[in-house]
Fold each of these.
Amino acid sequence: MENNVVLTARGITMTFPGVKALDNVDFTLRKGEIHALMGENGAGKSTLIKCLTGINDFEAGEIHIDGIEGPVRNHSTRDAQNVGISTVYQEVNLCPNLSVAENLFIGREPLTKLHTVDRASYNKRSQKIMDDLGIEIDVTQNLENYSLAIQQMVAIARAVDMDCKVLILDEPTSSLDDEEVEKLFVLMRRLREQGVGIVFVTHFLEQVYAVCDRITVLRNGTFVGEYPIAELPRVKLVAAMMGKDLNDLDAIEKEQIDLDKSEVVIDASSLTHAGTVKPFDLKIHKGEVIGVGGLLGSGRSELARVIYGADKASSGNLKVKGKEVKINQPIDAMNLGMGMLPDDRKAEGIIGDLSIRENIILAVQAKRGMMKPIPMKKQEELADYYIDLLSIKCPSREAKINQLSGGNQQKVILARWLATDADFLILDEPTRGIDVGTKSEIQKLVVDLAKEGKSIMFISSEISEMLRTCNRMVIMRDGEKVEELDKDLTQESVMAAIAGGDKAHE
Amino acid sequence: MNNKKTLGQKLKAWPLLLPVVCLLLVMAVNIIYDASIGNNPFSFFKITLQTTTGNGTILYGRIIDILNRGSEAAILALGMTLVVSSSAGTDISVGSVMSLSASVCCMLLAGYGVTSTSELAVPLIVGLLGALLVGALCGAFNGFLVAHLKIQPMVATLILFTAARAIGLLVCNDMIVYVRNDSFGFFGSFLGPIPTPIVITVICVAILATVLKKTALGTYIQSVGINPKASRIAGLNSKTIIFLTYVLCGFFAAVAGIMQSSRITSADSNNIGLYMELDAILAVALGGNSLGGGKFNLAGSIIGAYTIQAITTTLYALGVSTSQAPVYKAVIVIIIVAIQAPPVQAYFRKKAAAKNAAKEVA
Amino acid sequence: MKNTKLNGNTILLFITIALFVVLYAGGCIAYGEKGFTHFQTFLNILITNAGLICISCGLTVVMLTAGIDISVGAVVAMDCMLLAVGMQKGIGAVPMILIILLIGVVFGAVQGYLIGYLQIQPFIVTMAGMFFARGMTAVICTDQVSITQETNELFYNIANYKIKLPFGGYINNHDVYVEPYIRVGVVVALLVLILIFLMLRYTKFGRALYAVGGSEQSAAMMGLNVKLTKLKAYVLCSVLTSIGGICYCLNTMSGSVQQALGYEMDAISSAVIGGTLLTGGVGNVVGTFFGVLINGTISSIVKTNGKLASSWPNILTAALLFLFIVIQSIFAVIREKKKA
C-alpha cells in the first residue's frame, strides 16, 4: 500500500436482482486529494459510494482504511463515520425541523456537567463554523427556513466538522448557484490542504477540471481506469465514460421546415409561473423539434411544465392551434393533444407497483375517462405493440415496471405518451441514465415523430444531443427565456447563449 | 421436482395466501377442538335448516353465523381497502359514522324526540336514504380534508371519530331510539332462510366489483396510491379520486350502520360501530394489503373480515368470554403482522437463500 | 437584530394558550354565579385531568417520532383493575405501584420493539396493545372492584389527601373561608410535565426524538440509532401511561373493564390541539398541557351548565381539532410557498 493512501477498495462486487451493479471495481483515495468519481448514470458510482458508507452490503472485495488493521466492512453510516468516512448526498439528509446548530451537532452534542445537552456551547460553535465558511445565517433558526443551497452547505459543514479522513460529496453542487459552488470549492481546497481525501461526484465536467486532482472512471459497473487530471482531457474523459467515440453516433437526418408556412401548434404569450419562469413568448410549429437549453435550474423544465399545466401558469395566454385555452392541470393539456415525459422518472414518471401494461395504457385511459375502460384485449395489444416497437426488454407485459432497468422504464413512459397519439410532446431529459445505444434510438424516434407532423419539445442537459435532433433552440437562463437560436445552431453558439454574459454575437 | 417447485413459488406469489392460510388455521383449530371434545370434527361446517318461532325456517350453523356477524366488518373493509389504497392512510371514523347514520336513520323513522315507536314517521326509504346521505357526507368531509387540504388521513378522520358518535347522540336527544317495526328490522333478520346481512353484503360486494370491473376506477385508485405525482402528470386527478374513495368509505359505513341498528331495531349511539374501525383496518391488513397504499386486493380484505369474525366465533366456541376475547385477538394480530414485517421477511429470505446455497454445494 | 423565532409552530402555541384563556374567561363570564370564577374550579380541572396530563405527555413523546399509541386508554383500565384487585388481595400500595410501573416498561418495550425493530405500523401494534390490555382487564376481573379504606389504608389516604394552597381561597355562602386545594395526582402530573419538558429540550434522547420525527432517514444518516430511539419512546410513553393510570385510579378508586374508554383519543386530541403534529418532529408538552386544559375547560363548562347534552364536549373538541388541523395545514402551505 502506498504511504499516503487513505482508502483502498479492491475487487468490489455487488449484484442487485438481475443486474451486476458493480463488477470487481477498484478505487484508491490518497490523503489530500480531490478525486472525481465519474461515470454515466447507472455506471455504479452511487452503488460504490453506498458500499463504502455501509448502506449496501457488497458481496466480494475488500476495503482498507489507513490506520485500521485488516479489511473494513461498514454496516451503517454510523460505522462509516466511526472509521472516518463522512458523506454528503445530493438530497439534503438533515432534519428540517431542527435548528441549524442542532443539525450540525445532533448525535454528538457537547454535554454539560449535568449530562444535558449544552445548547449555548454548540450554538456558539455552530455560529463559528458557519461564519468561518462565510455563510451568514442565524444557527438557532430551524433549517427549514433556509434555502436548499444553505441546507446543503450545512450538511457539508457537519461532515467537515466530524474530523473525517474521507469526505464523500455525492453530487453536492446540483442545487447550488455559481457563487455557492465557488465557496464550496474554497472549502474543498482548504480541506485538501488539511490532508482530507475527498471523493467528488458530479455531472458538471467544468467542476471536475476546476477542483479535482485525479479521476476514476466507471462504466456499466466496471472499473475503466484511474487518471491524473492532466492526462485526461475532456474529450478523452467523455470517451472513457461513454465507452464510445462521440462521432460513432450516426448523424440523424433532420427535416427542414419552413417556419413561416407551417401551422403554429403552440403559441404562448407572456406565460409565467411565479418564482420559476419569467414571462415568455414562444411559438412552436407543426413538425418541428424545438430544443430547450440551459443549465439545471435555469427554468428549462419549468417552462415546459407551465405549458403542460404541470405547474399552473400564474399569468399569460396560451393558444393551441390558434385557439385560446386555459390549462389548469395536465389532463386539460392532454385533451388538447399534449403529452409530457417528465425529467424525474422515479418521482413523476413510473407507477412503480403497476405492470408495464398498466403503465403504458394509463394516459390513454385518463384521456378516455374513468367510465370508459379500455377492454383488456385492447390493452394487451397496445402494450405488446409498444414493447415491440421500442424493443422494451422485459420478462412479460405483466411484470412490474420497477423490475426493469432505468432505460427500459423510460421507454415504457415514452410508450405511454406515444400511445396517446399526442400532437405536441414534451420530452424532458428522455435519455438520462440510458445507455448510448438506446439514446440514439430515442433521438431517431424523436426526429421520425417530427417527420410525421408531430411537434416535439426536447429538453436535455447534453448540448450535442439537442444539436443532433432539434430544428430550433430556446435558451433559458435564470428563469428567463434569453434567446431563440434558429439557423446558427452550433456547440459554440449554444454554449455562449447558455453561459450568457457575452453578447458579442448579436 | 421442478414442477413442484414452481407450484410452491406460484403459491408464494399468490396474493391471497396469507388471508386464506389464516382462515384455514382457524378452521383447523375448530376441527381439532370439536374432535377433542368428542363432537363430530366437522360440525364447524355443518349447515342445517331450523324452524324458529319468529322467522320461520332459517339456515343454521357456525359458518352461517360467521358470515352473518362478519357482514358489517366485510362491508366496512370494502371502503377501507379503497381508502388505504388511494391515500396510504386509514379512515378511523367509520365506526363513529356507522353510529351517526344509524341514529339519523332511526331518528327519521321514529320522528325527532320519539324514543320508542312501532309506527314509521316517514316512509322507510326516506330513513335509509337519509342515513346513506349522511354517511356519504361524512366521507366527503374526510375526503375534502385529506385530498384538498392534504391532511394526514388519520388526523383528518380523527375529527369525525370524535364528533360523529356525539352528533348521533345529539340527534337522538341523548336517548336510545327504538324503531320496533318489521320493515326496518328486516335488514338485520332474514330473507327467506338466509340472514339479510349476508344478502346485503353480497350485493355490496357485487356492486363494487362491477364498478371496478366496468370502469377504470381500480387502476386509477392504485395509480394514485402508488405515485400521486406521476398519476397527475399522466392525466389523473388524484384529488378527485382520493375524495371519491372517502365518499365510498362513508357510504359503506352508513350501510353497515343501518344493518347493525336494524339487528337491534334501535339506534344505540354509544355502542353501534364501537371498535368497528379497528376490525375494518385489521381486515384490510389481514387481506395482505399494504397499509402504505398502492396495490389492493378486495377479495383479501373480505376474507380478512370473515377471518376476524371466525376467530371471534371460535374463541366463543372455545369458551372464552366476550370481554376476554380481545387478548387472543391481539396476540393473533401481532403474530400475523410480525410475519409480514420487512425485517422478518428479509430474515426468512436469507435463511432460504442459505439453504439453497447449501443444496447447490451438495 | 435577531429575527425572533416567530415561526408557525410558536404562533400555534400562542393560539392554543389564547384559546384556553378565551374559553376560560367565557366560562367565568357565563357561569360566574355558579362558581366558575373560583380558583378551585381551575384546580378541579387539574385534579380531574391529572392522569390525562401524564398520558398526553407520553403521547406527545411518541407523536414526536411520527408514531402513535392508542393502547393508553385500555392500559389505564388494566392498571386500575390490577391496582384494585391486587390491593384487595392484600398486596401493599407501594409494591402494587412498582408492579404497575414495571408492567409499563415491559408493555412499552414489546410495543417499541415491534414498531422500532420489526417496523410494523404503530397504529396496528398499539391497536393490538389496546385489545390486549382491555381483554386482560377482563381476564383479571370482570366485575367492578372498588378500593376502599379497608382495602388499602395508604392508597386511600393518598387519594383523599388534600394539599391546601395558601392563596386564592374564597368565602362561600355560609361565610366560611374555603381553602383551595389540589390532590397528590396534580403534583405528580406537574412533576411529569416539567421533567418531560426538560427531557425533550435538554437531553440527547429528547433531541433525537425530534430528529427521528423530522426525518427518519436523515436521523439514521446522521448516525442516530433510530430503532432504539423509537423503542425508548414507546417505553417512556407506557411508563407515563402507568403513572397516569395510577393518578386516574386515585380519582376513581375502582377498577372496571369499561373504564377510561376513549381516553387515548382525549390524549391524542390534547396533543394535537397543543400543536403536536402527527407527522412528527413538531410539538412540545407545554402545548399539550394547554390542550388538556382546553379539553378540561370544555367539559367543566358543559358540566356547570347542567342542561347541555353530554355529547357536547366531544363535539366541541372535534370542532377545535378541525380548527387546529386546518390552521396547521395552512401554515404548511405557506411554508412550502415561501421555499419555492
Amino acid sequence: MMFNRLGYAFCLILICTLSLIGCVGKNQPKVSPDKVLAEQAKIEQAKRINGYLDRLRAGGCNGKEVKPAKGPFKDHRDKLFSSYGFFINKSGPYKQEEKIFKQCQSIKALDHFFEIFWSIRDPDINTPENENKELIDKRISEIKNEILRTDQEISGTLFVSNGGLRGDMAHVYLFRGNPHYKVKTLKTNRLADLMAWVYFDDNQRPMYVFLFYDKGSGFQLFRNYRGMDTVETLMETLKDLARIYPTSEEDYNRLYQELIDNDHEYIFRFAIRQFSYYLDIKLDKVLNPPTPESMTAKAIQPKILGIPDISKDIKMIMNENFAKIMGFSQITRNTSGEYGLRLIVSIAGIDWQDTRGRLKSVLDLSVSIMNEKTREKKNFACSLYIEMPADKHSKANFPITPNNVPNRESVMNGATLSEIFKTLPSGDYEVKIYLLDRTTLKSGIWYEYVTIGK
Amino acid sequence: MPKSLVLLCLFLLFFSFPARVNAQDVTGPDSPDRPDVSSWTLVSSSNISVNVSDSVMYYLGFDLEFQNPNNPNERVRQIRMLIPFVVVKSKGLLDKNYADAAVAYVTDGTERALLKDYATKSDVILYIRWSIESDVSRGTKKLIGENEVWFWNASGEWVYGRNLRINKLMPSETFSGFGNYPIIVGVKYSLSRDIYNSTEVPYSFIFIALRATKGGK
C-alpha cells in the first residue's frame, strides 16, 4: 500500500513538474471585446432588434400606412398616441417603431403593438409589474389630473391649456417627472410669460433647466440656445421671447429690463444661455425617445469582472470552501544555501474538473518579494496545470514547488524564483504568495518573512 | 539515478511535512464551538468594498452583526469573504443624458443579485462574540465580560482567544499607466504576523477595469 501511495505521489509530482516546465503564462481573463467579438455583438443586436420589430408587426401592424377615418379605431389610436407617442422611436436602430405603429389596422393590432412595445421596456422581468410602464402611466394620470394646478411655485398652470398630453410641458413631465424647482414670471408686458423647470443632480447642480415661454398660445419649450453674449445674439433671443415684437432699440431695452426685473434668482438668464450646468447635456438628446436598452438600463449596465464562468457541461469537484484555498507556505533553504518556496495545499482543498476519470486544475501563482526597508519588489508569476486520476482524490496534502519554473514577469525580474532569491541583496523580506484557481476564481494568500544574507 | 533513490527522495518529500488531513482547532478541548447564528437576528450589515475610481469598485465581503433572539444583550459579529468581483460602470451611466428612470435599475440589478447570492456562498473568517448591558448612569450600553474571538487562519485552522485585537490592513499596489498613486487591492485581517486571513481582487481585473474606463475619468 505504501508503494502504491508512493507511486501515486511520484505520478502526481512528475505531472506537476513536467507541466510546470512548459508553463504558458497566458491567463489574462478576456473581458474587453476584440474586433471579432464586437462584430458578433453587433450582429446579435441587429438580430434581436429585427426579432422585436417582427413581433410588433405580427399582430396586424404590417402593410400600408393607415389613415383612419373618425370612429372608435381613430379615437383609440389617438388616445394611445397621446399617451405614449413621445416614447415611440423615429430614428436610430428602432426607427421602424413609428412606421409600424402607423401600419396598425385595428384596435386589436394597436393593443398588441403596445403590449410588445412595453414588454421590451420592462426593467425587471422577475416581477409581475412593468415598472417603466407603471411610472409613465402614473405621470400620465398626474398630467390629466392637473397636478400643477395647485402647485405652490407655479399655481394655476394647466397642462390642458398648453397642448395637453402632446404639448411640450407634458413631454418634459413624462420624461423627467415633477421638477425639483419651478418658477414663473409674474408681471410681464412686452416679454412673453416665462416658466423654468429645474432638475438637480446628486451634487445639487442644475442638470436640466427647461425654459418655457408663452406668447399667448400656450407654453412651448425654448430651444434656440445662442446665448446673449453679443448684441446680435441678445437681440435675436429677445425677439424669440417677446410678446410684442421689438422694432426699436428702446423696445429691446424695455424687453431686457423686464427680463431682469422678473429674474431675481437669475434662473431665466441661466436657462437662456444654457440648458444644463454640464455642457455635454443637450436638450434634444434628453427629450429623444429613449431606446428600450436605456429604459431598462441594458445600454448602460455595469460590467462585472470576477464571476466564475463554469459551463454546466463541465463536471466539477469543488472544495468545501466558497471563496478560499487554504494551505501552508514555507521558505526553504537547501544544502547549497539556495532559498526557495514550498506551498502545501490539500488535494480536496482545490477545485477540480472531472474529465472522464481524470481530474484537472489550472492555478495561477504569483509571488511578490518585497524588501521591508527599501520597499523594492521583485515579482514572479506562472500558471500551474495539475492533473491526476479521479480515484486519487482525497484530503491528503501535496506540495507546490515552483522554484525552477520560468517567470512570466522575467523582463524586470529573475528568470525563475530561485534566481530572484539569488539576486536579492541582504535584508529582511516579506514574501507574498497568491494562488488563484483560474476556473472558479477561489484564491489563497500567504505571507512569509525571511532574512537574507545577514 | 537508481529507482530506489528516487522513491526515497519522494518518500522524504511527501512525509517531510506534517500531514494535516483536516483543519484542526488549535484552541484545545476547553474552547467553545464557533457561534451558530443561523437563527439569530441580523441587526446590521455592510459590504466590504473599495471604490477604485468614479466608475470602478469591487466587493470583498460582508461585515455582519447578529443579535441573539433569546438574549438581546448577546451579539456576534461575523466577517465573511466572497470571491471578489469588480463593477465597472459604463460611460453611458456617467452620461447624464441617460439619467433618470434607467439609473434606478442600473447598478442595483446585477450587483444586488450577486451580493444576495454571496451572502450565503461566502466563507466566514471571523466571529467576535460579546455581551452588553445598559449603563443607566451614562445612558448608554457597556460591555460585560470579555470578547471572544474565533479566527480562521490562512492555513485553515481556527484560532480562539479572548480579548484578542484584530488588525485590519488594506494592502495596495501601483498599476503602471494609471498614475503613481497606490490602489487598494484587498483586505487583510490578522491577529499576529503568523495568524492572518487575506483576500485580494485579481490585479488583472483592476487593470482591465481601469483600462476600460481610461483610468476612471
